[in-house]
Amino acid sequence: MKIKSQKDFFSGLLFMGLGIAFGWGALGYKLGDAGRMGPGYFPLILGSLMAVLGAVITLKALVGKSEGGDRIGSWAWRPLVFVLSSNLVFGLLLGGLPSISLPPTGLIAGIFGLTIIASLAERRFHSRDVLILAAILAVISYAAFIALLKLLMPVWPAFIAG
Amino acid sequence: MKKGCMAATVVAMSICLFAPLALAQGNWPTKPVKIIVPFPPGGSVDQLGRILSAKLSTQLGQQFIVENRTGASGSIGTAVVASSPPDGHTFGLVFDTHAVNPSTIPKMPFDTLKDLASVMLVSTAAMAIVAHEKQPYKDFRDLLEAAKKKPKAVAYGSVGTGSLGHLAMTQIGGILGIEFNHIPYRGGGPLMNDAVNGQVPVAIATVFVTNPHVQSGKVRALGVTSAKPTPQMPGVKPVADQGVPNYSAVAWWGVIAPGKTPPPIINRIYEEINKVLKDPEVAQKLSLQGMDLIGGKPAEFDTFLKSEISRWAKVVRDNKIALGD
Amino acid sequence: MDLLANLSLGFGVALTPINLLYAFIGCFLGTLIGVLPGIGPVATIAMLLPATFSLPPVSALIMLAGLYYGAQYGGSTTSILVNLPGEPSAVVTCIDGYQMARQGRAGPALAAAALGSFFAGSVGVLLLAAFAPPLMLLAAEFGPAEYFSLMILGLIGAVVLASGSLLKAIAMVLFGLLLGLVGTDVNSGIPRFSFDIPELIDGIGFVVIAMGIFGYGEIVSNLGRSEKEREVYTAKVHGLFPTRRDFKDMAPAVLRGTCLGSLLGVLPGGGALLGSFAAYAFEKKVRTKPDELPLGKGNIRGVAAPESANNAGAQTSFIPMLTLGIPPNAVMALMIGAMIIHNIQPGPQVLTRNPALFWGLITSMWIGNLMLVILNLPLIGIWIKMLKVPYRFLFPAIVLFCAIGVYSMNNNTFDIWMLAGFGFVGYVFIKLGCEPAPLVLGFILGPMMEENLRRALLLSLGDWSTFVTRPLSAGLLATALLFLLVMLSPAVKKKRREAFEE
Lengths: 162, 325, 502
Known about the structure:
Largest sheet of chain B: 10 strands, mixed
Helix content of chain B: 40-55%
Order of helices and strands of chain B: HEHEHEHEHEHEHEHEEHHEH
Structural class of chain B: alpha/beta
Largest interface: A-C, 72 and 65 residues
Oligomer: heterotrimer
Number of helices of chain C: 23
Number of helices of chain B: 11
């Protein structure tokens, strides 16, 4: 069987998987009956519907007509990894991680970390440009969020802020 | 000579023993203080927090900052208080959900009684049971009559499953052998919306939330849950006088601190907040929120909290609330 | 006539220099917040609430109201420019707005949003002033059964939102519905799908999903394209203002959006959100002229209609608050808090006891809308200049502001982790050709739908016929069925396929 539409084929599989996962989770809650629904009733119905729909989509991707295979194409691994990592690093630096007793390093450190790592997603990395960008963002963020809007968040690491 | 030396030593020792405590009391606060409010801005707990922070900042010359940490009926913010350093520079505000959460939330990240210290019972508020103007009930007794006829004969709305209104009605039902048809809503806004439109015949919520609609005539107050009538709803009889003798259930607001905070500091916090509450401007603002000021001392609050926790734990257990039905 | 007398009283209050100043401050701050993705009006009103203690009540409320709809205006800016909806009501604007920006037509898109919003806002204020009581009577008829039926209608319309595969759109709606169910179930009180994580007990935040799926997904996808493909976005800018042709196309869309938005905005709890989705779905059904771009590919109607709808809804959603004292959303709840601090008891009595306040606020809303148009139109030029910044500088900024915005909601780093997670999900969906808009609608409607379904059944003691015996509910369900039949009918199906094959 040839896959007529790669995108649809994998979408269908994804939906099937999600539908089954939610449905299974829903079974862990009380179902009740149609007149007096428990917390599991609605999610179970939705999850089942989604699984069925996913199956239909997958099948259509195998037998339906389409031009050119509808390929997914290459994945942008480098941007994906670096953009998401920059976000995670920002969170780690801004708020710290209590479970490993990592104290917050603050907003400014977070901005630098995020900017540097996110910029690595680009093939061209000019460290001077990146650092200037980080500095500008730090200034704008401080002015807008801390000074003007008075949001509460750690800005500097503990040993500076006291 | 010896007596003099003795006396001097005693005095010296006393100073050494008590000075640190006195210093600790005298020096607090030495840096900005965080007031953790576990509920979103605008609500009653948040308003209380902001009023306190403004006044305490001027009173003590140190910044008192409100930090909202919302979620999970207030347990997320309370967990933050429990894990904060016990030096008096962090304390928190709680609502009556604090006494119910131990029974309804599985796996809380803190122990309500061990990890937190009670500081003050700030205020209480009665709840009112109201009916839509088109409903035939004139007072709570009428409601009970109708409800007795068969299970779920009477439907009433509350601000949420496990909320004080829900638990109180359930407890009343348990005492009188009545089963109400409980309709949970997400908070006072949606509840009163349906109550005022008559989509739900009866509702229970704090006097503060229900009063404007009682005044406008869209709903009728059947009874209040405090032991005595409340000044905001004169003429409305307590349910204790309407078929549920000696009954009283109130919403309440309190101050807590991290468990290991030293008692002298707890007492300092208590005294300073007490001073704020005695300010007539503050008292008026808070009574507009529907609060009856109490200012209960730490030990009193502790006793109150323990009794509330066990009381509602029993209602939750007996009625299998929040366990999936 | 009474209305004129009231309006002149109102203008007398609103046009004082001090109130004009506060209106301006509110609008300005609101625009700022709306533009900075993630930071919502709620957080800012909370910050400003203490500052308003010292202001006279009218001024305080005027400022807060300005903040509210200022944020609405600003939220559409980021939707159009960078595909980031700051508010649920701006999600739909992303669909055509962002496409227009990518074609170099960001200027006309922004102008369409601003002008459409102004028109709708004016109408909304007029409705608020003149028709508040009868509109409230209509809203009072809406009980849980009616809300449920309305949401069914909304969901069927949601499928229309997507341009691609119908089946995948339905699946996305279902996924959105399920994501919306994560959190505490209102009827039983237990947390669902929360894996014992406290932050999930209250569900996933809309901002997190929107930022992740729309924002991050688009950024990664963009970075994956070659430099050449990306240049198209920033290089060619075809004029800052809509052409005469644009105005002709826009006008009926604005009217339609205003109608739908005003009506739906009066319904407390979600009515206003439905407005922009409904307006967009409706636009899609309106026949396109032969030389018009299809909706979804950068049609200006796809921006004008939802923007008008959501601004009209923003104004009419004040109605339940001012007439009954019931806040339809978190922002209004804060404003009620502000009223209380100033010893004003919100509710029906405000009209009689404080007419100056009531009418002053209403007229100030119109003035605020005017200020926002005046503020936003010149800003368009500045935004366009910003778009010219090389993408490699722009995208870290977007990533940063999303993260800060999300963090600022709860001061919880967990939200930042979830943002990354949804970013991944968003990119996967782009690669798989699944559209995010139906998911977002499902996410918003899901919990409300289930809540109302169960509540209606609780009230009717398990009797399903309540949905058809109540006239309004029956009417809505009938319309939904009709809609469904129209969509599934072979003739329409063939037309759809033809339209996409071109």
